[in-house]
C-alpha cells in the first residue's frame, strides 16, 4: 500500500523547479513521479488541488533545549560573555533529564509545525549528561521529527565533565538508527584545551563516519580567549588537531580573518549561517556570501522556523550588499542530511526519503522556477504548512499533529521550564 499525491505543484530548490506532477510514496521513500500516475488498488490518494509539495526543511544548527528558556528572567547583559556566563551556562546546568526530554518533544513539535523535518542539534546539560541524547531522541520520536544529535564536549567544567560528554556523544552515535544519527559535538574553541581537542579527534576516529559539530567564531571572544589561553586562533587549533573535514558542521563563523575562513572552506566543511540568532545576541553580521558552496542555515536557539530564517538571511545579505542564493542555502541543508544518513533527503525524486510538506499557498502572482526564490523570501511562511510527512509517514495533517496533543506538550513544557528556572534561581541564591 502506498500514498499518491495528485494534482500538486512539486517544488525542488536547486536547480529550482516548480512542476505539476504526481508523487507516489511507498514505505519511507518516493517511488514514482509523473504527470498522471495511476494509483494501485490499495493506494491512499491525496488530492492536492494545486497546493505545493515542498521538501521538508533542515535546521543544520539547532538548540532544542532553548525552547524551555524563552522569556525567563535574567540580569542585564552588556557583552556576549555575559550571555554565556550569566544566562546560557547557568541555564544548561539547571537542566535535568526529564526537562531534556520535554524540550525534545516541545522543540520537535515546534519544528514540525514550522515545516522543519530535520534538526541537527547540539546539546549541553552538564549536570545531566549520561542519557541526555537518548532522552532528546525520545522527545523527537514522540513527534516524528528526524534528528542528528550531539553533545557539546568542553573542558569548561574539568576533565570529568569532558569525558562524560565524550562518552555520551560516542555512545549515542553508535546506537542511533532510523530517523536518528549522532555526531561529535563541541563547545566553543576557547572552552577546549589540548586534551579536549585530542578527545574529539579520538571520538571521530572511533566513530569513523561521524562529523564534528561546533560553534565557531560567533563572537570575537572565541579568537581572543583561544589565543590568550592556548596561543593560537580557533581555526589554527582545529586544523592542527585534524578536526575539520567535509563532514564537519561549523555554526556562526562570524568573526574570522579571511585567511582562516579560506582554510575552513578548503577543508570542505559545512558552514551554518544563523542570522536571527546573531542579531539577537548583537554579535554582528556573518559574511554569508563568502561562505562558499557548502553553506546552509540553522536557527540555533530561536524558533524552528526555517522560512523565517531564510528570509532573514536573504534580507540581511541584501542590506550588507552581499546577496546570497537563498535556495542554495536551503538545498544545502538537504545535501548535508543526505550525507549524514547516506541516502537522498530533499529531492522530490524516486529513491529519496519522503520528508515533505504540503503548503496551502495560493500565490497572487505566477510561481515559476525563475521566481521561486522571490516567493520563498517574500511570500511563503510557516503559516502555509498544512501537512507534514517524515519518512513516508504523515506527522501532521490539516495543521494538527497526529502523534501528540499540543495542549499537553505545552503544559508539560511550562511545568518543566518553571522547574528549570527555579533551579537557576536557587543556584544564584
UniProtKB/TrEMBL annotation:
Domain of life, per lineage: Bacteria
Gene3D superfamilies noted in UniProt: Metal-dependent hydrolases (3.20.20.140), Urease, subunit C, domain 1 (2.30.40.10)
SUPFAM superfamilies registered for this protein in UniProt: Composite domain of metallo-dependent hydrolases (SSF51338), Metallo-dependent hydrolases (SSF51556)
Keyword Mitochondrion: no
Pfam families per the UniProt record, alphabetical: Amidohydro_1 (PF01979)
Gene Ontology MF terms: hydrolase activity, acting on carbon-nitrogen (but not peptide) bonds
Keywords for the protein's UniProt record, in alphabetical order: Hydrolase
Family annotation (InterPro entries): Amidohydro-rel, Metal-dep_hydrolase_composite, Metal_Hydrolase, MTA/SAH_deaminase
Residue ranges of domain Amidohydrolase-related in the record: 52-394
The protein's name: Amidohydrolase family protein
Amino acid at each position: 500500500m502506498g500514498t499518491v499525491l495528485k494534482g500538486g505543484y512539486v517544488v525542488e530548490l536547486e536547480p529550482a523547479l516548480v512542476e505539476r506532477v504526481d508523487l507516489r510514496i511507498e514505505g519511507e521513500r518516493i517511488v514514482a513521479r509523473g504527470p498522471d500516475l495511476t494509483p494501485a488498488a490499495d493506494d491512499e490518494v491525496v488530492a492536492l488541488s494545486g497546493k505545493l509539495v515542498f521538501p521538508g526543511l533542515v535546521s543544520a544548527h539547532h538548540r532544542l533545549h532553548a525552547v524551555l528558556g524563552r522569556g525567563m528572567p535574567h540580569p542585564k547583559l552588556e557583552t556576549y560573555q555575559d550571555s554565556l556566563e550569566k544566562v546560557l551556562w547557568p541555564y544548561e546546568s539547571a537542566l535535568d533529564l526529564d526537562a531534556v526530554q520535554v524540550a525534545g518533544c516541545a522543540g520537535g513539535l515546534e519544528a514540525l509545525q514550522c515545516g522543519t523535518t530535520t534538526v541537527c542539534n547540539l546539546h549541553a546539560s552538564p549536570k545531566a549528561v549520561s542519557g541526555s541524547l537518548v532522552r532528546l531522541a525520545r522527545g523527537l520520536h514522540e513527534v516524528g521529527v528526524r534528528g542528528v544529535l550531539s553533545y557539546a564536549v568542553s573542558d569548561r567544567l574539568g576533565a570529568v565533565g569532558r569525558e562524560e560528554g565524550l562518552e555520551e556523544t560516542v555512545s549515542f552515535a553508535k546506537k542511533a538508527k532510523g530517523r536518528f544519527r549522532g555526531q561529535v559535538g563541541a563547545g566553543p574553541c576557547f572552552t577546549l584545551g589540548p586534551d579536549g581537542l585530542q578527545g574529539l579527534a579520538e571520538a571521530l576516529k572511533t566513530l569513523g563516519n561521524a562529523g564534528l559539530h561546533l560553534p565557531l567564531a560567533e563572537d570575537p571572544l572565541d579568537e581572543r580567549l583561544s589565543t590568550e589561553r592556548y596561543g593560537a586562533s580557533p581555526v589554527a587549533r582545529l586544523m592542527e588537531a585534524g578536526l575539520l573535514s567535509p563532514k564537519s558542521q561549523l555554526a556562526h563563523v562570524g568573526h574570522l580573518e579571511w585567511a582562516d575562513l579560506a582554510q575552513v572552506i578548503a577543508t570542505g566543511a559545512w558552514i551554518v549561517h544563523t542570522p536571527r540568532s546573531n542579531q539577537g545576541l548583537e554579535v554582528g553580521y556573518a559574511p554569508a556570501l563568502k561562505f562558499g558552496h557548502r553553506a546552509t542555515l540553522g536557527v540555533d536557539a530561536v524558533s524552528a522556523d526555517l522560512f523565517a530564517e531564510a528570509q532573514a538571511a536573504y534580507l540581511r545579505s541584501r542590506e550588507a550588499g552581499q546577496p546570497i542564493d537563498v535556495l542554495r542555502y536551503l538545498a544545502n541543508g538537504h545535501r548535508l542530511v543526505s550525507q549524514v544518513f547516506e541516502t537522498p533527503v530533499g529531492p522530490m525524486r524516486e529513491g529519496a526519503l519522503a520528508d515533505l510538506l504540503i503548503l496551502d499557498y495560493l500565490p497572487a502572482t505566477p510561481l515559476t522556477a525563475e521566481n521561486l526564490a522571490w516567493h520563498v523570501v517574500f511570500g511563503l511562511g510557516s503559516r502555509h504548512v498544512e501537512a507534514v510527512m517524515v519518512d513516508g509517514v504523515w506527522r501532521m495533517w490539516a495543521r494538527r499533529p497526529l502523534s501528540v496533543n499540543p495542549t499537553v506538550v505545552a503544559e508539560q513544557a511550562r511545568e518543566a521550564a518553571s522547574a528549570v528556572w527555579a533551579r537557576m534561581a536557587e543556584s544564584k541564591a
